[in-house]
Amino acid sequence: MSALRRTGVALSLLLAGLAYAAPALAQEGQEERAFGAGRRVWMDLSAGGYRIQAGRDDRIVVRWQTDSHSDAREVRVDIDARGSNATIVTRGPRNHFKVVIELPARTDLTVRLTAGDLRIREITGSKDISSWAGDIDIEVGRPEEYRSVEAAVTAGDLSAPAFRVSKGGLFRSFSWRGNGRYDLTVRLTAGDLRLRQ
């Protein structure tokens, strides 16, 4: 075999090895539906990292990212928006599933999360949130906007500076009553819960 051919074979093997060792490229997707402000959204979310935040006042937008093409094939995102109610259901891979959900800023929320981290930002309205495991961090706004607040953590820390509450350990909870129009209920089995202003 000539030196040139040997060099070519070696280069091909090297490139093939690099291609095999290279990390998979992130895969992204998006779904959206028309939906107005002042309505209710119910969510059934599989395990993952979620950020729910204010977006446009005339639609729901769900964007997601996975680490590989094979993981992307496991993703299912369904948005059903009818009248004053919408349902969002997600299914994804066990690991490295990241989702951003944008809603009208004034939206009532019900969220059922299997496990993972959840962040809620700049959403005004009543909220009913529960998760088995992970951290929950909710921007609640002004305390005076709420009529009732019920929060409970079975194992983990409960920090609610917006309501001057901080507890750690097992079976932590608190109740709060006000003169506002919104209700807030949060239940977390294992993890840390933070209600920030």
Structural class: mainly beta
Query: What percentage of amino acids are in beta strands?
Result: over 45%
The overall strand count is 17
Radius of gyration, in angstroms, nearest whole number:
22 Å
- Please, how many helices? 2
Give a short summary of the structure.
This protein has 197 residues and is mainly beta. Helix content is 12%, strand content 56%.
Describe the structure.
- The chain has a 9-stranded mixed sheet with strand order 1-4-7-3-9-11-17-13-14. Strands 5-6-2-8-10-16-12-15 form an 8-stranded mixed sheet, with no helix packed on it.
- The chain has one domain.
- The chain has 2 helices and 17 strands.
- A hairpin with a 2-residue loop joins strand 5 and strand 6.
- The termini are far apart.
- With 197 residues, it is mostly beta strands.
- Residues 6-23 have low confidence and may be disordered.
- The chain is globular.
- It has helices at residues 3-21, 69-72, and strands spanning 27-34, 39-45, 49-54, 59-66, 76-82, 85-91, 98-103, 107-115, 118-121, 127-133, 136-139, 146-155, 158-160, 165-167, 170-177, 182-190, 193-196.
Helix-strand blueprint:
Blueprint (H helix, E strand, L loop, with lengths): L2 H19 L5 E8 L4 E7 L3 E6 L4 E8 L2 H4 L3 E7 L2 E7 L6 E6 L3 E9 L2 E4 L5 E7 L2 E4 L6 E10 L2 E3 L4 E3 L2 E8 L4 E9 L2 E4 L1
Parallel strand pairs: 2-6, 2-8, 3-7, 3-9, 8-10, 9-11, 10-16, 11-17, 12-16, 13-17
Antiparallel strand pairs: 1-4, 4-7, 5-6, 12-15, 13-14
